[in-house]
């Protein structure tokens, strides 16, 4: 514009200059420049105003969109200022409180809450709570609310509350909780029922199995003996089924308790293997174990439950294995903990059955299940116990190639001593082991190798004799010979003679109780001593390191009950038996008398306490042992024991008697109750004659006690 003005002609400008003079002309130019600046500023303001109007329209549209979105939500939304007055509410909130929406603005209207849940705070600071609101319907409606602070248009902080109806979810959850409560009550009732039925089952089973044992020791013809053995086998199978059902019921009810106490892992493993040995050897197969020397002497855990797991696994292996044997191996790793492997040479498990092997009522093979029987609960119980001990269990198997179960348990070590501290020093010694076995012979080699010995393992008599014959030609001859009698009596005698000629220092023969009778005297067969299979590692080391050969006839075998010791002067032990069941009482009395004890029978707790009280006062002879049934009419065994203990405490010069619970209540809580009542031990029905024999062996007579 200035250019146009300038170009309009210099004549006009000259006229102005001529008319106004120079000063006037400058002033006019300055006014003109100011005018143009003002016009440019005005245009800029107009542009900014236009932009502001656009933003206002945009904000207005956004606000309307926001309100539209809020109204479209299925949630209930309300916003209040700091005094609780409503500044905004959507239509659903108005419907919920039953008032027009316009009437809610500025009001403090709230729905009537009849029940509220706990308030929770999210990480972002928002509050969450559930409320049941009365809407005039038959049942209240539940809403889940979220409260969060927001900025109002004026800058003030207000509370925005959004809620969503959850009535259906709450009703469903409460129905499920009620069903769960009823199911738990039914489960507990089932557990109580099973515990009661267990007692009622065990009581007649004790009579059946015990009386069968007594009959088997009488004069019978072979046919009668076979019938009675079948009765005993069936009774034992029934007892095993009862135990499995009870255990599974406790696991299902979540009442499987895991103890945490120090225990000797070697004693547990060797005890399980010895327990199953008669069954395995009766089938013509072997069972053996090996505990790696580095395994700690003592671990912290539940020895009883671990024993149950091993009996299940190894017992299954024995049941399904027809040729070969079963091996139990134990090792310890500082990272993984206790490692237990149970292997067998049985028929194996089909690959498509392994995945379901640990499920309830499943077995490795339906054909074998039909042949061998069982509930299919053993492995399911085993897995549950291992998991409760925070461990893992795995299985590797294939058809016709045996099975291998591996258990990993993160058990703590009690102390810092491992088994290597007790190993003998066999460095520089060579031993020849002649055996044709899948587990026992390799385990012997590992035991001796851990002690530093060199071991030659042979399976052929011819090769073994050749090895002995050439022993004198090498720098280190054989220090000892170990021969498995399962190879035959003649082989055992020939090997002993050859080893003696070659200068072997020790000759040991491995025997099962069946082979012991066939071989006769090991000394006559040329051996220094014998070892009963399955081997205990301590016995193996002791026999190899003894200074002089022991008399074999003086060695104690791990079979058969022993007569109880007599007191000084030849007095036999006296036993007080409290038992209300006549059949079980007859069984216990006859068994104890056969073991050489004198027995008084009390038919209930009152009579048992009276007899014990009479022995305190000198009216009757003292009792060395009291066998107390727990469940008896009138005065039960626990209360009778408490009264006897109270009487003992009153007579401070009396040595407390040994009181053992003899009962069909075989659960852990029953053992705890017996211990709390003052009982010294727990013997579950049905009992074995060897159990009673051991009780008498472990009980000092009153004369020996100094009373």
Mind telling me which CATH architecture of the largest domain this is? 2-Layer Sandwich
Bulk shape: elongated
CATH superfamily membership of the largest domain, which one? Histidine kinase-like ATPase, C-terminal domain
Number of strands: 25
The number of distinct structural domains comes to 6
- Overall pLDDT: 80
Name of the CATH class of the largest domain: Alpha Beta
Helix content: 40-55%
The CATH topology of the largest domain turns out to be: Heat Shock Protein 90
Question: Structural class of the secondary elements?
Answer: alpha/beta
* Tally of alpha and pi helices: 22
Compute the separation of the termini in Å.
138 Å
Uncertain stretches? 366-373, 549-570, 703-707
Relative strand content: 15-25%
Write a structural description.
The protein has 707 residues and is an alpha/beta fold. It has six domains: 2-72; 76-165, PAS domain (Beta-Lactamase), CATH 3.30.450; 171-252, Helix Hairpins (Orthogonal Bundle), CATH 1.10.287; 261-413, Heat Shock Protein 90; 423-554, 3-Layer(aba) Sandwich (Rossmann fold); 574-705, Rossmann fold (3-Layer(aba) Sandwich). The strands form five sheets. Strands 1, 2, 3, 4, 5, 6 and 7 form a seven-stranded antiparallel sheet that branches.
Which helices and strands occur, and which strands form pairs?
Layout: H1 2-7, H2 10-72, E1 76-80, E2 86-89, H3 91-97, H4 101-104, E3 112-116, E4 120-121, E5 127-134, E6 141-151, E7 157-165, H5 167-216, H6 222-252, E8 261-264, H7 265-282, E9 286-291, E10 298-301, H8 303-320, E11 325-333, E12 337-344, H9 351-354, H10 366-372, H11 378-388, E13 392-397, E14 403-409, E15 412-413, E16 430-434, H12 440-450, E17 454-458, H13 461-469, E18 478-484, H14 489-501, E19 506-511, H15 513-519, E20 529-532, H16 537-545, E21 574-578, H17 582-594, E22 598-602, H18 605-617, E23 625-628, H19 637-650, E24 658-663, H20 668-677, E25 681-684, H21 689-698, H22 702-705
Parallel strand pairs: 9-11, 16-17, 16-18, 18-19, 19-20, 21-22, 21-23, 23-24, 24-25
Antiparallel strand pairs: 1-2, 1-7, 3-5, 4-5, 5-6, 6-7, 8-10, 10-15, 11-12, 12-14, 13-14
């Amino acid at each position: 514009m200035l250019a146009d003005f300038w170009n309009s002609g210099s004549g006009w400008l000259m006229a102005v200059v001529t008319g106004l003079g120079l000063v006037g002309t400058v002033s006019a130019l300055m006014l003109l420049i100011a005018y143009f600046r003002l016009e440019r500023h005005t245009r800029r303001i107009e542009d900014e105003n236009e932009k502001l109007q656009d933003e206002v329209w945009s904000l207005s549209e956004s606000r309307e969109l926001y309100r539209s979105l809020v109204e479209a939500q299925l949630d209930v939304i309300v916003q209040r200022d700091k005094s609780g007055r409503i500044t905004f509410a959507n239509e659903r909130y108005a419907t919920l409180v039953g008032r027009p929406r316009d009437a809610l603005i500025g009001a403090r209207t709230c729905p009537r809450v009849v029940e509220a849940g706990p308030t929770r705070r999210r990480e972002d600071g928002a509050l969450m709570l559930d409320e049941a609101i009365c809407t005039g319907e038959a049942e209240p409606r539940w809403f889940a609310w979220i409260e969060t602070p927001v900025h109002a248009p004026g800058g003030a902080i207000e509370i925005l509350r959004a809620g969503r109806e959850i009535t259906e979810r709450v009703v469903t959850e409460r129905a499920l909780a009620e069903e769960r409560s009823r199911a738990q009550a039914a489960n507990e009732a089932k557990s109580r029922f099973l515990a009661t039925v267990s007692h009622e089952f065990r009581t007649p089973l004790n009579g059946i199995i015990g009386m069968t044992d007594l009959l088997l020791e009488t004069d019978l013809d072979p046919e009668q003996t076979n019938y009675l053995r079948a009765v005993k086998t069936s009774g034992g199978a029934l007892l095993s089924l009862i135990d499995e059902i009870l255990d599974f019921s406790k696991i299902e009810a979540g009442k499987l308790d895991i103890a945490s106490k120090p225990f000797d892992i070697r004693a547990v493993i060797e005890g399980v293997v010895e327990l199953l040995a008669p069954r395995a050897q009766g089938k013509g197969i072997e069972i053996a174990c090996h505990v790696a020397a580095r395994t700690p002497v003592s671990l912290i855990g539940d020895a009883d439950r671990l024993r149950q797991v091993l009996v299940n696994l190894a017992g299954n292996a024995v049941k399904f294995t027809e040729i070969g044997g079963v091996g139990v191996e134990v090792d310890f790793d500082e990272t993984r903990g206790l490692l237990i492997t149970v292997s067998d040479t049985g028929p194996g498990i089909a690959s498509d059955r392994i995945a379901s092997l640990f499920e309830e009522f499943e077995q490795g093979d339906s054909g074998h299940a039909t042949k061998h029987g069982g509930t299919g609960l053993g492995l399911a119980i085993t897995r549950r116990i291992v998991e409760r001990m925070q461990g893992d269990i795995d299985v590797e198997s294939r058809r016709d190639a045996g099975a291998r179960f591996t258990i990993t348990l993160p058990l703590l070590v009690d102390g810092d001593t491992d088994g290597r501290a007790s190993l003998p020093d066999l460095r520089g010694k060579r031993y020849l082991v002649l055996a044709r076995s899948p587990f026992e012979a390799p385990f012997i080699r590992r035991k001796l190798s851990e002690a530093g010995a060199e071991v030659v393992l042979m399976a052929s008599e011819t090769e073994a004799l050749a090895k002995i014959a050439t022993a004198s030609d090498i720098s280190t001859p054989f220090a000892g010979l170990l021969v498995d009698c399962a190879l035959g009596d003649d082989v055992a005698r020939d090997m002993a003679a050859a080893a003696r000629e070659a200068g072997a220092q020790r000759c040991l023969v491995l025997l099962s109780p069946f082979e012991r009778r066939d071989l006769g005297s090991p000394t006559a067969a040329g051996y220094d001593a014998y070892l009963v299979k399955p081997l205990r590692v301590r016995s193996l080391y002791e026999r190899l390191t003894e200074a002089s050969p022991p008399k074999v006839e003086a060695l104690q075998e791990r079979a058969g009950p022993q007569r109880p010791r007599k007191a000084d002067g030849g007095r036999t032990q006296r036993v007080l038996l409290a038992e209300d069941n006549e059949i079980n009482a007859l069984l216990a009395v006859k068994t104890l008398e056969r073991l050489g004890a004198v027995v008084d029978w009390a038919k209930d707790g009152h009579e048992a306490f009276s007899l014990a009280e009479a022995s305190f006062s000198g009216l009757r002879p003292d009792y060395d042992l009291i066998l107390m049934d727990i469940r008896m009419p009138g005065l039960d065994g626990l209360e009778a024991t408490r009264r006897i203990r109270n009487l003992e405490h009153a007579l401070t010069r009396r040595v407390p008697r040994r009181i053992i619970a003899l009962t069909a209540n075989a659960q852990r809580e029953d053992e705890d109750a017996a211990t709390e009542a003052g009982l010294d031990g727990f013997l579950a029905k049905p009992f074995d004659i060897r159990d009673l024999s051991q009780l008498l062996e472990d009980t000092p007579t009153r004369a020996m006690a100094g009373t």
